Amino acid sequence: MKKDWNRRKSAAVLFSACAFVLCAVTAAGLLLSDYAMETDFTQKNLSPSLSHLFGTDWMGRDMLARTLTGLSLSIRIGLLTALVSCVLALLLGTAAATLGRRVDACISWCVDLFLGIPHILLVMLLSLAFGKGLAGVVAGVSLSHWPALARVVRAEVFQLRQAPYLLAAEKLGVSRFAVARRHLLPHLLAQFLTGLILQFPHAILHEASITFLGFGLSPEQPAVGIILSESMRYLTTGKWWLALFPGLSLVLVVLLFARMGERLRQMGNPASVHQ
Amino acid sequence: MEPILSVRNLSISFTQYTSKTRRHRLHVIDDLSLSIEAGQVVAVVGASGSGKSLLAHGILGILPYNAFLEGSIRYGGEALDQARAARLRGKEIVLVPQGVTYLDPLMKVGPQIRKGRRGKPLLDRCRAVLARYGLGPEVEDAYPFALSGGMARRVLISTAVIESPRLIIADEPTPGLDAQAAGRIMGHFRELADGGAGVLLITHDLELALTVADRVAVLYAGQTVEEAPACAFAAGRLLHPYTKALYQALPQNGFIPIPGTQPYPGEIAQGCLFAPRCDRCRAQCKEASIPYRAVSSGYVRCLTAEEEETA
Amino acid sequence: MTLEAKQVSFGYAGQGQERVLRQVSLTIRPGERVGLSAPSGRGKTTLCKLLAGYERPDSGQIHLGGKPLASFRGFCPVQMIWQHPETALDPLLRLGETLREAGPVEQRLLDALHISPAWLSRYPGELSGGELQRFCIARVLRPGLRFLLCDEITAMLDLITQAQIWRFLMEEADRRRLGLLIVSHNRQLLKALCTRVEQLEK
What we know:
heterotrimer; A: mainly alpha; MetI-like fold; elongated; C: 202 residues; alpha/beta; Rossmann fold; five-stranded parallel β-sheet; 9 strands; 29% helix; globular
C-alpha cells in the first residue's frame, strides 16, 4: 500500500480535501445565514471563547457564523465571476485568433486597455458603473479578469491553427465546426480549467477588497469585505478578533484554491506528468 | 587499448502511469552492450523505438526524471556517473542532436555556437568551423527559424565540434540533408575520428552508416542483437536474421520487407524478441533469454547463428 | 485528370523579396510516380504544400483536371503525407478516432499496412514514428483520392518499415492509378520507385 503512494494519488487526495473544505464552508455559510444576522445585546463584544469561537461583535452577533456566511457568499460570487470571465476569455481569445485581422486588432486593443488600467481601479470603476451592490461586484470582477487568459487563449489558438494535424483534417474534408470541436477545444480545455481555478482566489480577493473599500456589496450583506471594514473601527479599542479570524479564514480559502489550481497545472504539465 | 567508452549490460526503465493513478516500471532498454575506441566510428542502427536516443541520453546523464538506469557505463577507464557526465558533457563529450528544435529560437546562430562567450580567437574559430560545413559568415546573424533543415543540422554539428571533444555522440545527424551534404557530414565525422576522437553515430540510416563506420551495432527492441565490422555487410557475413533483413530492405539490395513490427517493451515476456518475425525460430528460442555472445567477428544474440555461418 | 503547377512562385511572409520557389512548373499524370530531389532549402516541402492546397502561390496557378485546386470542396483529391507523422496527428485524440475522422476506413487497408487493432485505442505519443506514418497513409487513401504527395515520408523510418510502406503504396497506386509525387534525398529509393525523376532548379 505504502509503495503504491505516488504524486497523482496525493494530488487527488489533496484536491478532494480542498474541494470538501470549500463545499463545507459554502454549505455551512448558507445554513447559518439567519443565525449570523441574529443580534443579542447581552452577548456583545465577547472575546473568543468556547461558546463563540471567533467571539462576537458590537451587536452580539456570532463572528464564526458571520465569517462562514461571508466566505460562503465570497465563494459563490468567486465561482460565478471566475466562470463568466473564463468563458469570456475563451470566446474573445478564440474570436481574436480565428475571425480575421480586424477582430483581432480590436480585441487585442481591449486586452491592452484593460491590462493597462490598475486592476483594483478598474474593478471599482466597473462596479460603480453597474450600480454597486451584488450586480456591481459580479460585473466588476468578471469583466475585469478576462484579458490575461484571453491573451493566452489567443496565442494558443494561433499556434493550433498552424498545427499540421489541424490543416490535414481540413484537407480531409472535415467540417470547420468538427475541426474546432475535435482539435481546438480539447487543447484549450486544460488552459480553461486551470485558468478557472487560478482565477478563483483572485476573484474572491478582489470582491473582498472592493467591498472593504466601499465600492462593492452593501453593508447589510455579511460579506467578508464588510466584516473587515467594520472591524477596522473597533480595532483601536482592542477588539482584535473581529478582524483577525475573518481575515485569516479569507486567506486560508484563497490559499486552498491557489493550491488546487497549482496541483491541477502540475498534473497537466507534460514535463512532470509521470512524477 | 582501453576503449574511450564502454557500455555493459545497460538497462533503462521508466516509471509510468498506466491508468489515472497506477504506476509501474517499463523496461525500454534491456541488456545493451557496446564499446568505442579512440579513432573509431561506431554506428548504432535500429528502428525508432529501439532505444537509440535513450542510449545517448543515458551516456550524457540527461535522462528524464522518471528514468532509471542499471548496468555500467565507463568513459576513459572510469565509471561515468551522473556527476561526471554533467562535468564532461558539452566539453569532452558532446551531443549532436536531432533537429532544429534543439536550437534556442530566440538567439542568433553565432552566439549560440559560441555559447554566449566573446573574443576574437573564438570568433575566428566559429567562422572557420562554419566554413568547414559550407556555411558562410552571414549564417551567424540568422535566427534558427530562417535555417532550412539541412542548415540547422550543420549548425548543430558546428556547435558540438567547436569544443574539440574526445567523444562525439551524433543522434540522427542526417535526415533532411541531401545525399551530398549528408555524405560530407559523414566525412567530417570520419575526420574527427581520424583525429583521435571516438564517434558514436546513432542512426536508422544503415546505408549511410556503412559509408563511414568501422563497426555497426544493431539494436532491436532495446537489445543489441549484433555487432559486426562494417565490411561484413557487403560481404554477406551477417549472423543475426534481423541484421540480414535490414540489409536486404535497402532499395538497392532487393527492397524486401519482412512482415510484422518491432515489439513493445514488455510485449514479449520470454525468449528471443525477434522470434515472431524470424524464419529460423525454434522451440528453444522462445524458452529463455538469449545470451549476447562473442563470435569471431564481433557479437551476436542468436542461438542459430552458427548454422547460418556454415550454410 | 492531371495535377499541374504552372509557373508558381512563393515566398513566406517576412522574408521580403526572397522567394522560396520561382516560376516552378510541374505536371503529374495519373499512374505516374514522379520523384523530386533537390538540395535542402530549395523548397521541396513548400512545393508539396502548394500542390496540396495548404498554401496559395503568390503567382502562377495550381490546376487539377483543368480547374483551380481551390475550387474543390470537401475531401481534397490531392493529399499530402508529412515527413513527421507525429505532428500530423492530434496528440489528444485516440488514433482510432483520428483515422475515422473523415469517415470509415477499409479494413483491407489496415491489414495491408500492418496496423494492429490494439493501436486504435492508443494516443500518438505511445507509438513510434513508423507506426504513426501508417495511420497517416491509411486515412488519406479514400475513394476520392487522385494524387498523393509524399514528402520524405520514410526518411525518419527504419529500412524494413520503409520497404513495407513503399511496397504497399506502389501496389495501391498501381491498382488505383494514383499519381504520386515522391520527395526524397535518397537516390536509390527514387530509382527503385519512380517512373521519372525531376530536379528542382534554383
